[in-house]
């Protein structure tokens, strides 16, 4: 699979930046760029591959600070955020989503967690989706598509 990965150093988090191209017949679509934050490398890689095969451009990072750096560099590029809740040291996925939503209030947010879903009603941002681990990759793709389609309807002026 053609891609480039940047490793910022032994003490720095891993950051996977996918180069636009074709994978599994799905052309990358920069209008569907997703920021994925997951501290478990194998889960991050699985999500990246699934989203790329579904036609999304993906930037994958391992912690909230790296996510904020990537988002701050190109806030208009990202159309959705997929984040784990417990991201190791530093900010949580809850904190990350609130910070990003302060800049981009309508950004679709999908939370994934093995144990924090009970806190979603009080900690999650409005109009977000919680997916419990373990999950199937189509759940992530469906959640992003659902929120993006809802956003498109609102952007078109078809408010309920």
TrEMBL record:
The keyword Acetylation does not apply. The keyword Ligase does not apply. The modification 4-aspartylphosphate is found at residue 84. SMART domains: REC. Gene3D superfamilies: 3.40.50.2300. Residues 33-148 form the Response regulatory domain. It comes from the Bacteria. This is Response regulator. It comes from Mesorhizobium atlanticum.
């Amino acid at each position: 699979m053609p891609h480039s990965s940047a490793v910022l150093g032994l003490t720095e988090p891993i950051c996977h930046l996918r180069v636009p191209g074709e994978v599994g017949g799905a052309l990358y679509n920069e209008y569907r760029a997703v920021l994925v934050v997951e501290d478990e490398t194998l889960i991050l890689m699985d999500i990246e591959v699934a989203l790329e095969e579904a036609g999304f451009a993906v930037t994958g990072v391992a912690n909230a600070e790296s996510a904020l750096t990537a988002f701050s560099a190109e806030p208009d590029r990202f159309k959705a955020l997929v984040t784990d809740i417990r991201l190791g040291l530093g900010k949580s996925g809850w904190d990350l989503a609130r910070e990003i939503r302060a800049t981009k209030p309508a950004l679709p947010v999908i939370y994934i967690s093995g144990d924090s879903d009970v806190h979603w009603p009080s900690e999650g941002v409005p109009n977000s989706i919680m997916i419990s681990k373990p999950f199937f990759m189509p759940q992530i793709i469906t959640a992003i598509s659902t929120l993006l389609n809802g956003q498109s309807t609102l952007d078109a002026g078809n408010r309920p």
